[in-house]
């Protein structure tokens, strides 16, 4: 029998004959306030209102933006262009991620998973594949731009015979995304008790810690390292070129790094704090309460990054903007004809007003 058991009534074989008495004395000196269970009901109440609203906004905006990108790329898709191939798969990744948000919004609003165990794993698969796929395709685009700009290499898919190389790279990225997502998908279970839930159930503490480290390394440290290195080489190369468009390209690259850092760093910091919590640090109720609120805020900020991908990577390009306007004119010809008519009327009105004022000034 272990001497550390407070409920032991029989003496233990210990050299210290006061061991049991000291343990009993310590038991009566315990403060009940130190063992009050953490109450996080206000965090759940906050999430019931906050998360469904913001998840719905991210879903709608992201669906419109990425859906438009996908439609334009499918219509004007060029297999020989690496950027088009990456943009297409980036939009697919974001759409996979966005598909999961309505389910998480309902889960947050009701605090109950009603879609079953199979849908729990399926939604988790969409979420994880979209999450890692989006990051990895951004990195592939960055590396491609680095090779083209710094080393003056032809884009990997510029030549017709290199299309197979691009398909292999895209397949590798999707395979890598699936590989790093698989443990979370497998361990995620939907339990249909009185209060259904959908969350990872890791077999031991080590798996949970590894999942946190994976998110930090693959979700922030690796992307920032690769982007920082590549753009630190690309920007000086562009600055040395005699091109009118170099300043715009440099600004775009700085925007890419800053936006990624601002949107993903807070979320990864909170993930790292969860990692420390499971190591035995920051175990107080206040810390756990604050971490719960911080996770909701930072997670939503990080999720909204998929709404910005179409704007940053697609709409800022002159060629893509032209294709978007062309597509919208084909889809909504009446709207664009009315807008054009209105523009002409406003222009004529301004011209007539200017002419009248000029005439009045002449006669004064």
UniProtKB/TrEMBL annotation:
The main place the protein resides is membrane
A single GO molecular-function term is: C-C chemokine receptor activity
- Signal sequence range: none
How does the protein associate with the membrane?
Answer: Multi-pass membrane protein
Q: Where in the cell is it found?
A: Cell membrane; Early endosome
Q: Which domain of life is it from?
A: Eukaryota
Q: Name the residues that span the membrane.
A: 54-74, 86-105, 125-143, 163-189, 209-231, 252-276, 296-316
Database matches in PROSITE patterns: G_PROTEIN_RECEP_F1_2
Alphabetical keyword list: Cell membrane, Disulfide bond, Endosome, G-protein coupled receptor, Glycoprotein, Membrane, Receptor, Transducer, Transmembrane, Transmembrane helix
Instruction: Identify this protein by name.
Output: G-protein coupled receptors family 1 profile domain-containing protein
């Amino acid at each position: 029998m272990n001497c550390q058991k407070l409920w032991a009534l029989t003496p233990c074989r210990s050299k210290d004959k006061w061991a049991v008495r000291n343990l009993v004395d310590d038991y009566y000196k315990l403060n009940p306030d130190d063992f009050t269970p953490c109450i996080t009901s206000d965090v759940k109440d906050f999430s019931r209102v906050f998360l469904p609203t913001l998840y719905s906004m991210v879903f709608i905006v992201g669906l419109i933006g990425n859906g438009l990108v996908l439609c334009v790329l499918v219509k004007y898709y060029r297999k020989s262009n690496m950027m088009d191939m990456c943009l297409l798969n980036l939009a697919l990744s974001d759409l996979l991620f966005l598909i999961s948000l309505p389910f998480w919004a309902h889960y947050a609003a009701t605090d109950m998973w009603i879609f079953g165990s199979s849908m729990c794993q399926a939604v988790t698969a969409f979420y994880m594949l979209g999450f890692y796929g989006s990051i990895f395709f951004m990195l592939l685009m960055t590396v491609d731009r680095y090779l083209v700009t710094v080393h003056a290499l032809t884009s990997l898919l510029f030549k017709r015979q290199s299309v197979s190389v691009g398909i292999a790279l895209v397949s590798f990225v999707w395979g890598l995304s699936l590989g790093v997502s698989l443990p979370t998908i497998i361990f995620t279970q939907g339990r249909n008790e009185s209060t259904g839930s959908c969350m990872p159930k890791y077999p031991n503490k080590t798996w949970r810690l590894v999942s946190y480290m994976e998110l930090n390394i693959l979700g922030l440290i690796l992307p920032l390292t690769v982007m920082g290195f590549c753009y630190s080489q690309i920007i000086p190369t562009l600055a040395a070129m005699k091109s009118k468009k170099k300043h715009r390209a440099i600004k775009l690259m700085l925007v890419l790094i800053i936006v990624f850092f601002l949107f993903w760093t807070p979320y990864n910091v909170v993930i790292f704090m969860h990692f420390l919590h499971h190591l035995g640090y920051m175990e107080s109720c206040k810390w756990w309460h604050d971490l719960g609120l911080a996770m909701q805020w930072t997670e939503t900020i990080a999720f909204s990054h998929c709404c910005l991908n179409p704007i940053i990577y697609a709409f800022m390009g002159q060629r893509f903007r032209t294709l978007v306007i062309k597509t919208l004119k084909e889809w909504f010809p009446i709207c664009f004809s009315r807008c054009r008519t209105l523009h002409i009327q406003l222009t004529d009105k301004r011209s007539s007003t200017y002419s009248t004022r000029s005439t009045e000034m002449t006669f004064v």
